[in-house]
Each structure stands twice: as structure tokens, then as C-alpha cells.
Amino acid sequence: MEIHHPYLLFLGDVPDALAAKTGLGIVDWRKEWCVGQYRLYGCNADANLPDMAPGEAAANGAKTMIVGAVNAGGVLPDHWVESIVAALEAGMDVASGLHMRLSDVPAIRDTAARTGRKLFDVRHSAERFSTGKGTKRSGKRLLTVGTDCSVGKKYAALALEKGMRDQGFDADFRATGQTGVFISGRGVALDAVVADFISGAAEWISPDADEAHWDVVEGQGSLYHPSFAGVTLGLLHGSQPDAFVVCHEPTRKTMRGVQTPLPSIQDVIDLTVRCGRLTNPAIRCVGIAVNTAALGEDEARKLLETISVDHDLPATDPVRFGVEAIVERIGKEFGNP
Amino acid sequence: MEIHHPYLLFLGDVPDALAAKTGLGIVDWRKEWCVGQYRLYGCNADANLPDMAPGEAAANGAKTMIVGAVNAGGVLPDHWVESIVAALEAGMDVASGLHMRLSDVPAIRDTAARTGRKLFDVRHSAERFSTGKGTKRSGKRLLTVGTDCSVGKKYAALALEKGMRDQGFDADFRATGQTGVFISGRGVALDAVVADFISGAAEWISPDADEAHWDVVEGQGSLYHPSFAGVTLGLLHGSQPDAFVVCHEPTRKTMRGVQTPLPSIQDVIDLTVRCGRLTNPAIRCVGIAVNTAALGEDEARKLLETISVDHDLPATDPVRFGVEAIVERIGKEFGNP
User: Fold this and answer.
1) What pairing do the DSSP bridges indicate for beta strands A243-248 and B64-67?
2) Which of A84, A129, A144, A277 could share a disulfide with A153, CB 3.0–4.6 Å?
3) pLDDT above 70 for B73
């Protein structure tokens, strides 16, 4: 699966920015891939792109329209179907992260068949995976892990890809969630894979590579999250990381969506090493990424300093202070390019 | 989902007993539910049941025909379709553990619709699960875990259900694999659930119950198996066991299907306790079930004695020596009925 850019971002008529977070996440990282946004009357999200309809976007080179918004209930409203059909008619492929398959809507399916355009449902991988094998592959891998869900694992991985490339590393972001798939044009939404194939899918996204090559793998969930730890463990085993970065949100008391208390950073390091050794005995932590958005700058710097000293690892907020310290550590531990 | 018995076991024309292991597993545990077997010319498996065709089975009270065999490739051969259609015409439901859905075959789907019979594809749960919540539920739970796949977790759970009931416990086997689903008439084939819902499905199969009630949950995979550990961890978190039994095969050197060495029993106890505490802080091991089929009786007794002393836990081979010692331990630790 390879989703071709440039993209037209379809934001529908969603009531707020949160409902368009997939689309906005794409713009954050791949603005140069986005020729415009296509909004319906009443849309309250704004990606700060030129507004354009499918015909104009296609004329401007757009290859794929991304359904980068989700309405209440996650279903595809009837009045969006017409917009998707229009994109296909204009010559674009359409990619969606909705739970519902585009191809389950007869008007969309029929138009795609007639025009020869592709439909991508990233929550429904068409790829047939093997079960994981656990065999060591060539090349190097870094995985972002978390004390919780939604603590910046995707952001940290993308920032590390960029930071490592800036220092001359041969590094590629590997997407494991839907927004990540749109940002990189490929990958697998792991949460949608059948349970038996989690680690197999993780092996598939980070295949054998040159010894100096780094896959920077987007983490999912947390080994301590009672809803999603199975996905996290399968991803850890399948991606067999040489290095991992712990992502953390310091103001959170309970884990997202449940009443379970947050684990400590040290808990996460220990359990990740213990479980990760199964497929990579040399696994080690190379840094801590902390989301300090809720703190003032002084407070943030102080917290990062404390966390860094406590764990004897570089600690940074990738958004606020960049990831240079972690990239430097990777170079020290594994060799610079 | 409730699959109604009595069953007619369809074994097709499979070349050997291994290809009919689902059907034979049902007979091992629920012979009283099986009115007969339906075999096609050339079948080399034998469940030691009266041979009968669908009409005769239905006249003898059979409510469901179980497709208890799998041909090479796991697909449904054309010449089996006719047999399935005949079962529906005779008034039976049909349940299958094949990867392919019965309802994807037009002749089967149409006949089921016309006759009003049900089709069960246990590898494709029709149930919509929630994500796991990790909240403590009432009642007690026991989970079988393993040093590897295929080390007797289902057998141990079924033997414990029986042994506990014999001692007056209110205990119910909870199936998490396809054969287990046929044996109990309900449950979920966890390996076929979408990754995000593993622990949620495990919560669903072992709901709130009387304080004295025991769910005896069939384990899956191993926390140390690089292919399936994600399923194992989600099942552990979702089933939130009070007690667990480690299942082990002492002659195995590497894990099933991969090159990874087998963990020790102690490794499995330690990691199960460590991870299981997330949803049940009081989790503890209550016994070890060892498959000693490859050993002579003296050797087997000696090995069990050593394992028992080493871990300060009852150790037994459920097939050879029963599970009384483990049931006794459960009574001591949690109270007898």
C-alpha cells in the first residue's frame, strides 16, 4: 500500500478542530504534501490551506483526497459521500481513517470501479500478514513507547526521524497508526490488525535493511494500559528495537479512558527492557520525551533536568526544546553516520 | 452467541486425524453432546461416533453441524459446500472454525436465509466489543498460562472446571479458542479479534459474577512467544485472574513455530504476576500443569516432584494424574465451597 501525494484534505463539516485532528496532524508534518483543504458549509476546523473543491485540487496536482475528519459516531454521513464521489470523478484516489469502509458504500465503490481510482481504508489493512517470527533482522530500529496512550509517541518518532536525518543518519519513520500512515504514505494501523498478526505486522513494517539504517517506529498504547497493552507488546516484539524512547505526560494521574494510575517512567523502562529482550537482547533506553505543554518554561526545564538526572538519560520536550540531546545519545551509543 | 447442541460433527474427507483435531477435541470433552459424525468418502479421521448423514442426525435431535475439520489451505472445498447446504436443509445450524466465512459462500448464505438457520463463524466474531476497562469485577477467575503455545492450556482449564465442580465449586470454563468455543457452546476465538479489543473481549467472556463463582479461562499463547504474546497479555489484563496455572511441556527446546528458546516456568510465573498486577494486584500462581506424555511414569513422577519442590506449588500432569492437587490448593488459598 502506497498512498500517493499531493493530498487534498477533506474536513467535511466537523464542529471543531478535534474532529479534524487526523487532517491537522498531516499538515503539521507534511504541509508540502497538501495542496488544499476541502470544507463543507459549517466546518469549524481550519488547516490553514487554500480552500478548494476536488476539480481544482486535481488540476493543481492532488493525487489523493484524504478523509481527515471524523463525525460523531465515526460513520460516513450521506452528505460526505457526494464529496468523495466527486473526488474520484476528478481523478483522485481517496483514503480514509474511518472505521467504516469506503468500499461498503455502493456509490463510492461503483464510482471507484468505473473511474479506476483506488480506495484506501487504513483501518482495514488489505495486506495479509504472517505471524511474527522473532528472527533478528539487519539494520537498526528505534521504538517510541509511553507511560500512557496519547503522550506524544508519534510526534517524538517524527521529530526523531527529522533530527536524525539532520545529523546525517539514514532514518525512516514507520507508521503504526492512521495519522502516521497518511503522514508517511504507508504503514499499518496496528490497532485494526487481527490479534494473531500484531507482531507479524510490526515485522512487516520494519524489514531487513542496511546495517546503518534506522527505522524510527511509531509506538502505540502502553505496556501498562489495560485496554491496549497487547498491541504495545506485539509491536515491541515485532519491531525488535535496539533503542527506545519513553514518552510521558507529567500532569496525568490516571491512564487515558480508564481509572488505572499512571506507571512511573522507570516502570516503563524496566518492563520494556524485560519484554523487549525476547527479540533483541541488546535493547536499551536512549532518552525520555516529556510533553511539558501544561508547564511554564522554567518549570519545564527544571522537570526535564530532574528526570534526566534520575534516569541518567537525556530528557527533553520534542515540541519545545527539540530532540538533539536524544539524537546525540543515539550517535554515542550506536555510532554517528 | 450460543451454539446449540447436540452436534453432528462434519469431518469431510480429511487425510488424517490432525486435520480433524477440532472435531476430535469436541468428542474428548463433550461426547454426550455429539450424536454422530458425518464423513465423506476417503476420510481418514474417526471420532468413534455413529456415522450419519444430516437428515438422520437431525431426526436424532442434532441441532448444529460443526465443521470440525480443516483441509489444506484452510479454505472450504466446493464438495463440502453441498454437505453444509444439506445440513441447513435438514434443519440444523452450522458452525465453522475455518478462516473463510460460511456466509461468503452464496449457496450457503442463501440456504441459511431461506431456511432461517444460523451460521456461526467462530473465527469471525459478530460481537462488537468495547475496549478493555481494567475495572475489577466481582467473582473469581483462574487463567491457564503457558511457557509456549500448544502445551495443554485448554485441556488444563477444562480439567480444572471438572475437578472444581467435582469438589462442589461453582466453576465455568470460558473459551478463548475455536475448539473451546465448540466445547462450551460459547466464548470468543481471541486470536481473530481486532487488536484494539483483545482485553475488552476477555472482559466480555468473564463478566461480573457471584463472589464464590469461578471463571476458568482458557489461556492463549505465551508472554514469551514472539508471535502471540500480545494476545496473551491482553487476555491476562482482561481476564484479571485471581489465580493462574502455568502449563509446560518439558521436552520442548524452542517455542512452537519459531527459533526462540523456551522460558523457564519461573520466568513465566514472574512476568505473569508482574503484568497481571495491573488489573488484579492479588494475582498468584496456584499450580503447574506439565505434559509428561513423552516420559515414562517413574520419570514423570520424579519430574513433577522436582518442579513442585522448586516452585513450592502443586505440579501435576492433568491427563495422567488429574488436577486434584491444584483444586486443593485453590480451596486452601481462596476457600472451599
Assistant:
1) unpaired
2) A144
3) no
* Cα separation, A20 vs A29, whole angstroms: 15
Asked, for residue B284, whether it belongs to a domain, the answer is: yes
Give how far B56 is from chain A: nearest CA, Å. Answer: 38
Chain B residue with minimum CA distance to A268 = B275
What integer is the mean pLDDT of B26-38?
Answer: 96
* B-chain residues near A279 (CB < 8 A): 226, 260
List the CATH number of the domain containing B179. Answer: 3.40.50.300
Q: How confident is the model at residue B74 (pLDDT cuts 50, 70, 90)?
A: low
How many beta-carbon pairs below 8 A join chains A and B? 136
Alpha-carbon distance A263 to A316, whole Å?
Answer: 19
Instruction: Give me the percent of chain A exceeding a pLDDT of 70.
Output: 99
Q: How many domains does chain B have?
A: 2
Question: Chain B residue closest to A267 (CA)?
Answer: B274
DSSP A194: B
If asked whether residues B152 and B275 sit together in one domain, one would say: yes
Instruction: Residue count of chain B, please give it.
Output: 337
Q: Give residue for cell 518442579.
A: B307
Phi, psi of B310 (to 5 degrees): -60, -35
Give the closest of B133, B135, B226 to A278, CB-based.
B226
How far apart are alpha carbons A84 and A217 in whole angstroms?
A: 31
Same domain, B37 and B164: no
Unique residue bearing C-alpha cell 486452601: B332
User: A209 and A315 in one domain?
Assistant: yes
Place of cell 495479509: A128
Cell 469436541 identifies what position?
B26
Tell me the three state secondary structure of residue A163. Answer: helix
- Please tell me whether residue A299 adopts helix, strand or coil conformation: helix
| Domain identity same for B153 and B94 | no
In angstroms, how far is CA B244 from the centroid of its own chain?
16
- On whether residue B133 sits in a domain, the answer given is no
Q: Nearest by CB to B234, which of A199, A229, A235?
A: A229
Burial class of residue A273 (count of CB atoms within 10 Å of its CB; 0-12, 13-18, 19+):
middle
Summarize pLDDT for B262-292 with one digit per residue, the tens: 999 999 999 999 999 999 999 999 999 999 9
The pLDDT confidence band at residue A100, using thresholds 50, 70 and 90, is confident
Whether A293 is covered by a domain: the verdict is yes
Alpha helix stretches (DSSP H) within B167-264: 178-184, 198-205, 229-239
- If we measure between CA atoms, which residue out of A40, A33, A37 comes closest to residue A48? A37
**Cα–Cα dist A225/A203, whole Å:** 22
Ordered DSSP codes for B20-69: GHHHHHHHHHHGGGEEEEEE-TT-----SS-B--HHHHHHTT--EEEE--
Enclosing domain of residue B277: 140-334
Indicate whether A30 and A177 sit together in one domain: no
User: What does the alpha-carbon distance between residue B155 and residue B157 come to, in Å, rounded to a whole number?
Assistant: 5
- Residues A190, A199: Cα–Cα separation, whole Å: 9
B156 part of a folded domain:
yes
Site of grid cell 471507484? A112
Cα-Cα end-to-end distance for chain A = 30
